[in-house]
Write a structure and sequence with these properties.
The structure is a homodimer of 371-residue chains.
Chain A: E1 6-7, H1 17-28, H2 45-61, E2 68-73, H3 80-88, E3 94-99, H4 102-111, E4 116-122, E5 145-149, E6 151-152, E7 157-158, E8 170-174, E9 189-195, E10 206-211, H5 227-232, H6 242-257, H7 260-281, E11 286-287, E12 298-302, H8 306-318, E13 321-322, E14 333-336, H9 343-360, H10 364-370
Parallel strand pairs in A: 1-13, 3-4, 3-5, 5-8, 8-9
Antiparallel strand pairs in A: 2-10, 6-7, 9-10, 11-12, 12-14
Helix pairs in contact in A: 1-6, 2-6, 3-4, 7-9, 8-9
Chain lengths: 371, 371
């Protein structure tokens, strides 16, 4: 598609041309329905078929074991900060939360409306620039679950292995920014959730993968807040975000066609290594986070001054490379390498970064002195 | 657009060609962003501008008085069955609910998770085929609010005037199926909400219009459940359903271009009168609901037998007239006349109905006898 830029935004992500073309055609007519995707009925056979194949695709790509429900809900990932504890944190119980960023902290804060929350590890004092080490992570006896964020989009940290937990409760994971970017052991979790607009399409859907024995809520809830409601209705308790689910179905097909999760993992590794290699070799840019905790989907770095970081983004935009701002509470620069971002775009970014450093490096000492 | 059918479905509604064409173009490129609408960032100036103009359009079309917030949220209308009482029904207080259909009943049931619910009027014993009369509607002293459904999509009843309430609390209205189809006194309400996929675009957004003094929740809530959270964040607390909001913005523009709410009301009147006139003159079809409570957006009727109702839908589909099934708990037939359904489509439907009645009438007595 002509006139398009390469987006490294933290989400919504750019989407593959194939997905966009097929979705675009569906706006005029979805399959043989005589209606466009925006007009499709959620009680129609065509939607049902599309929904079922989307869930089947998710199950296959993520190797979801038997005994798990897959739900596609309104509200993105954020709504799960509420639904998870509303359904599963007993009023007289507690849950452990690992605090590795502002979203992890927000999940813990929302859970506190329902029960006791133990922040069992936090790297807040290190401005979340690293993950807690296993020996820094306590566990609470009797905690119902341990919640963590697999990848911190803001600052660019990512758990390489499952965080330590006490082994009695179950793990709950906000996998919003790295689900489908690498192999992932769903079976080690009681509940995994993610938003759609990073590696699974566009904004508007939340994905919840939950062990079937956890579906019954621990308290009286209005129907909409209960996982059981949505499971019973195959995610059609109310009119679902039909068109966003269709985008997801196209994105999952694209993911499968591209070799599935293993291929995506290889891609993320190659894309991130290209940038980290450049950053490590640079005397101009500095990577922000601890080497052992680096994310393969969000690469964060600093240029020597805030002015240069602003100039970097402007110059990049002139090359059609956009979305490189850092999270607003963190600042600096960030390249998000979601599945739909092609290696060629990252190569183009790397070339630009090299050139920008070369062009702006000579002036640095003089500028620094003059301040 | 070629090969399209006319949909009389109860939602998602069909959409005007102009809306579909403009939306379709935006999938490849939204304005001058270099990205499509599915990829647009919610922190971008372009989204902000689009969001603000959507809200401004809604305010203008509905003549929303000062002192009201307009929110565009995930979760459709149904999520408001939860949010409304979660925010505003005190644990030791009560709310009055008028039960005029299955959705009105579901709203009352969800509210019961938060406080005492008084069903102050119900036409359940009449299978919701009429609305309660003013003298049948009690009011509870001290009730915080009185909730009603302005139009019952299932069965086709619609309040012509505001329901009676005790005058101390405020009115809450689920206007999912008739918001923007007629003049509506927002200022007589504390809270009005609606889903998007009937007269405001496609599925995926809930519209909430709420008096600013009602924003503070009456109980401790996780952030996501609180109206205040979303008001403070201009509906961008989490990534909004961007693309569905854009469809809404196009639909609102189309509504304004078509003459606004007054013109829509005239359109609904003309479309519904055409069908009710036909039904009243018919010895084949029977309208389902009481004359004085007839909806202008959902016209429900029966054919002489279930078999004929099935045959009706099949024959209609052959003329590209679809979505005429009745609500699953009600059965029979229903034509939904949302704003985007053109009068010409209703004329085509009326012609078909005439013809179907003519063709199938003569066999009736014999068939009836043979049973």
């Amino acid at each position: 598609m002509a006139g398009r830029v390469q987006s490294f935004a933290p989400g919504p992500s750019m989407l593959p041309d194939e997905v966009l073309s097929e979705y675009q055609a569906s706006v005029g007519q979805f399959r043989d329905t005589g209606l466009g995707i925006l007009e499709l009925g959620h009680r129609s056979g065509q939607f049902e078929e599309m929904y079922e194949s989307t869930v089947a695709h998710l199950r296959a790509l993520l190797a979801v074991p038997d005994g798990y429900e897959v739900l596609l809900l309104h509200g993105g990932g954020r709504f799960q900060f509420t639904m998870l504890p509303a359904n599963l944190l007993p009023e007289d119980g507690s849950a452990d939360y690992i605090e590795t960023g502002h979203f992890a902290a927000a999940a813990a804060a929302d859970a506190a409306a329902y029960g006791r929350v133990n922040v069992v590890a936090s790297t807040r004092r290190d401005r979340f620039l690293r993950l807690p080490r296993a020996e820094e992570t306590r566990s609470t006896a009797g905690a119902t679950y341990t919640h963590y964020t697999s990848n911190n989009t803001e600052i660019g940290t990512q758990f390489r292995k499952l965080p330590r937990h006490h082994g009695i409760g179950w793990l709950a994971c906000d996998a919003s920014s790295d689900l489908l970017t690498r192999r992932f052991d769903v079976g080690a979790h009681g509940c995994v959730y993610a938003t759609s607009h990073k590696n699974l399409g566009t904004a508007g859907v939340g994905i919840v993968i939950i062990r079937s024995d956890l579906l019954a809520p621990v308290r009286k809830l209005p129907a909409y807040l209960s996982y059981a409601t949505h499971a019973q209705a195959s995610s059609r308790f109310n009119t679902p975000p039909i068109s966003a689910i269709y985008v997801m179905s196209l994105m999952l097909q694209w993911t499968a066609d591209g070799g599935g999760v293993e291929a995506m993992e290889k891609g993320c590794t190659a894309k991130s290594e290209l940038l980290y290699g450049l950053l490590d070799d640079s005397d101009f840019y500095s990577p922000l986070v601890a080497v052992e905790d680096r994310s393969k989907v969000n690469v964060t770095f600093a240029a020597p001054t805030p002015d240069l970081e602003a100039a970097f983004q402007e110059a990049a935009a002139q090359r059609d490379l956009v979305g490189l701002w850092g999270y607003r509470k963190v600042g600096h620069l960030r390249a998000s390498l979601f599945n739909a971002v092609p290696l060629t775009a990252v190569e183009k970014l790397a070339d630009f970064m090299d050139e920008f450093a070369r062009t702006n490096r000579p002036r640095l000492p003089a500028e620094s002195t003059s301040r």
